[in-house]
Design brief:
This is Receptor-like protein 12. Helices cover 4% and strands 27% of the residues. The longest helix is centred in the first third of the chain and has 10 residues. The protein has three helices and 44 strands. Among the domains are: 93 residues, Leucine-rich repeat, LRR (right-handed beta-alpha superhelix); 238 residues, Leucine-rich repeat, LRR (right-handed beta-alpha superhelix) (Alpha-Beta Horseshoe), CATH 3.80.10. Strand 29 and strand 30 form a beta hairpin.
Length: 607
């Protein structure tokens, strides 16, 4: 049984032990309670509740704790407005209110907390405000104000905070340029300005900060050119410039500037030409994003030897790569992550590739999200996930987007509604029968198996897909009759079984009354409406067409493409590799993923 502390018990500790100097119950996630009213005369110096399940609001009487030096309620469940009396605690040197649901304005009285060295208010629901209130807190070494709805320019008066080692202003509404004084903050270890609206060039002085370990400038409007050779910080382990209007230039000689790099995010940075030689010799790589550039040619052999024991994320999507310099049977990175069976998968699009072999029966059995929609999803398919690494917390936040052929029309989805489920395996070289297990995917909205070499009968179990709106089995070698049970699919708008070897009468009733003869073309053995050929007089027992009839394959594949994906709920993406059958593609599913989402934002934050 998990230990729990009742609110009354926890409050008693705080209310009646006024002689306490230190009260620390941090990191007890099952400990519940709330803060009592505090009286004058308390000698409490440390009140540390972080990582508990304490909740409710902070009492106004917290201003009575005149001896308090450290107050830590991070990662709790506190809410409401922060009492202005907290600004009366002029002896405070450590204040952490992060990761709660505090609302309202950050109190203006915080300007009185002149002894603060550590301040974190990150990830709350504050109303918008500027950063000018920070200017007088000149003893600060740590500032965590990411996700605080801060707006406006970064005040020049913050240059007075000369002791700063950590400045995290990620995910706000900050505008303007990076102020020149920031290049003088020689003690900075972490600088986070990502996901704001900052613009202009990035001064080289930022890249010369001698102690800088983490630099996050992603998701802004920065422009100009960044030369990796200007990086002078030999301590840099995380370098993130993705999703700006920058052009990054680097060459083989710049590898020394990145000698300790672990996190490298350069998506959409106009990298062009051959594979980046500045990565040569980088043996500490853990997280690499190079998607959305113009990198061309082969992935070199030397890159396959980097980070074999450390790399856990690799993104090369949206480039002009043509393959591997030296063929590989198994990708060498042992720790690549987000080994899943894709149980929450709702959309699979592997169309237009060269997959061989039978349809992946075992995967159909594992795709349970296509059997019952997860009701906890938002209105649109989104990811807001995180996981802990030894030194970092990785967060991924994006709306899924995709382009898919739906009901015969190529459709671009900027956002994907939560109920959409679809399988498109068309235009491959799958063979064998259609598994009965597809009939278990009862939430399926669209199924496209066209342009393959499928044989055998259409399984009656497809009639279990009561919500199915589109079913395309055309351009295969399917035989036998169309199951009469398919007439039960009353939502079916598009149905196509043309160019097969089907025979017998076409089912009647419901949606089948709406399909024209193009849905059934090039099946010489079929009869009945809407075809002109009537059934009866033994016409359904006509001999099957010759083997080469209906066997024309409309696409000649010279591609060498395989498709893989992201395990939280969607598989869409591509890497260049070798044409392979279904047996070979299994190792790829287990060892490599590429996220594809137009609004993808993958971020890492230092603990």
């Amino acid at each position: 049984m998990q230990p729990r502390c009742q609110a009354e018990e926890a409050n008693a500790l705080l209310q009646f032990k006024e002689s306490l100097v230190i009260h620390s119950i941090r990191y007890n996630p099952y400990l519940t309670g709330y803060l009592p009213e505090f009286h004058w005369g308390s000698h409490l110096e440390l009140l540390l509740l972080a990582g508990t399940s304490f909740s409710s609001q902070l009492p106004e009487s917290i201003g009575n704790l005149k001896s308090l030096k450290e107050f830590d309620v991070a990662n709790c469940y506190f809410s409401g407005v922060i009492p202005s009396s907290l600004g009366n605690l002029t002896t405070l040197n450590y204040l952490d209110l992060s990761h709660n649901t505090f609302s309202g304005k950050i109190p203006s009285t915080f300007v009185n907390l002149l002894q603060l060295t550590y301040l974190s208010l990150s990830s709350n629901n504050f109303s918008s405000g500027t950063l000018h209130w920070l200017c007088n807190l000149t003893k600060l070494t740590f500032v965590g104000l990411n996700r605080t709805n801060s707006y406006g320019e970064i005040p020049s008066c913050l240059g007075n905070l000369t002791q700063l080692t950590h400045l995290n202003l990620n995910v706000n509404e900050l505008t303007g340029q990076i102020p020149s004084w920031m290049g003088n903050q020689t003690k900075l270890i972490l600088l986070g300005l990502g996901d704001n609206k900052l613009h202009g060039p990035i001064s080289d002085s930022i890249f010369r900060l001698p102690n800088l370990e983490t630099l996050n400038l992603v998701g802004n409007l920065f422009s100009g050119t960044v030369e990796l050779g200007h990086l002078k910080s030999r301590s840099l382990v995380s370098f993130q410039l993705s999703d700006n209007n920058l052009s990054v230039i680097g060459n083989h000689n710049d590898s020394a500037a990145l000698q300790k790099i672990q996190i490298l995010s350069l998506s959409g940075c106009n990298l062009s030409g051959e594979f980046p030689s500045f990565l040569h010799g980088q043996n500490h790589l853990e997280f690499v994003e190079l998607g959305g550039n113009k990198i061309e040619g082969h992935i070199p052999t030397w890159f396959m030897n980097l980070g074999t024991e450390t790399l856990w994320n690799l993104d090369l999507r949206g480039n002009l790569l043509t393959g591997f310099e030296q063929s590989v049977d198994i990708l060498p990175w042992n720790n690549l992550r987000s080994d899943f069976e894709f149980q929450r998968l709702q959309i699979v699009d592997l169309s237009g590739n060269c997959f061989l072999g039978k349809l992946p029966l075992e995967y159909f059995r594992n795709w349970t999200a296509m059997k019952t929609i997860y009701k906890e999803h938002p209105l649109y398919m989104q990811v807001d996930a995180s996981f802990q690494l030894p030194r970092y917390v990785m967060t991924s936040q994006f709306d899924y987007s995709m382009t898919m052929t739906n009901k015969g029309v190529v459709t671009k989805y900027e956002k994907i509604q939560e109920f959409l489920t679809a399988i498109d395996l068309s235009s491959n070289r799958f063979e064998g029968g259609i598994p009965d297990a597809l009939g278990d995917l009862k939430e399926l909205y669209s199924l496209n198996l066209s342009n393959n070499f499928l044989t055998g009968r259409i399984p009656p179990s497809l009639s279990n897909l009561k919500g199915l709106e589109a079913l395309d089995l055309s351009q295969n070698k399917l035989s036998g009759e169309i199951p009469i049970q398919l007439a039960q699919l009353t939502f079916l708008e598009v149905f196509n079984v043309s160019h097969n070897l089907l025979s017998g009468p076409i089912p009647r009733g419901n949606q089948f009354e709406t399909f024209d003869n193009t849905s059934f073309d090039a099946n010489p053995g079929l009869c009945g409406k809407p075809l002109s050929k009537k059934c009866g007089n033994g016409e359904d027992s006509l001999p099957a067409p010759k083997e080469d009839e209906g066997s024309g394959y409309p696409l000649e594949f010279g591609w060498k493409v395989v498709v893989i994906g992201y395990a939280t709920g969607l598989v869409i993406g591509a890497i260049l590799g070798c044409a392979m059958n279904t047996r070979n593609y299994e190792w790829l599913v287990k060892n490599y993923f590429v996220n594809k989402g137009q609004n993808l934002k993958t971020r890492l934050c230092r603990n």
